[in-house]
Amino acid sequence: MSVEQQYLADVDAILAHRHDNGADLWATEDKRLLKGSPFSTFDSVLYLLELGMEPDEPILKEAANLIFSTWQEDGRFRIYPKGGIYPCQTAIAANVLCHMGYVNDERIQKTLRYFLDTPYHDGGWRCNKFSFGRGEETEHSNPQPTLNALDAFRFSQYLNREPALDRAVEFLLQHWVTRKPIGPCHYGIGTLFMQVEYPFRNYNLFEYVYVLSFYEYARKDSRFLEAFETLASKTVDGQIVVERVVPKLAKLSFCRKGQPSALATKRYGEILENLGKKGI
């Protein structure tokens, strides 16, 4: 797939931000790859892939090399030069590289093994960082990093074959029921979660249903089916209408708030295909 004519201006707009953070490829000079959201290195690579840019395009190959340069021998990624290395950071790095087609790279395979070896007791993944203090709610995994990890794993040989991933899916399905802010970063299921956000950046209904739809454990579960029906009820003539987008992306044509998005609808079509439902 290549970028369609109608999205070339979006690609140009994203590329125009590639030096915003002081270095090339949306990064800082000291390789802070999450800096500058919504135009961080990770964000921008995912946007370009979503718009149809091939992973073997020179700029994406350079970005992959940059991300891999932060890989550690234990499988984690150090995307900040100082401080701790947290599972949430490794999950997003691995997820981006899996989207780029590197799932079989021996470094990514080691990263996936790192995740399989380090789940929290509730099945998800949890960062040992307490920005909001400690409480009963922080004795849970972080939903968004867990969803990011599962997004990476769906590209792998472990999909629907690894019990540890079923436990991670169960953790997220339980959150659909409790809905309370949980984990050290207080991820909840409330008004903002229920708004259809696109492109995928935050913990929200659309990304939640999309990622979980790849997992057999979820597809046969009533909690997931309820989440899917909630998403389906928001479609208009079978199309996904963007309800929320970060303001700095508002001018991009592929994700305009209040309008149907062909690329978001394509993702919805993948959900239907995963569920064995008639396509759109």
UniProtKB/TrEMBL annotation:
UniProt-listed InterPro entries? Terpenoid_cyclase/PrenylTrfase
A GO molecular function assigned to this protein is: transferase activity
Keywords for this entry? Transferase
The answer to keyword Transferase applying to this record is yes
Put simply, this protein is called: Prenyltransferase
What species is this protein from? Emergencia timonensis
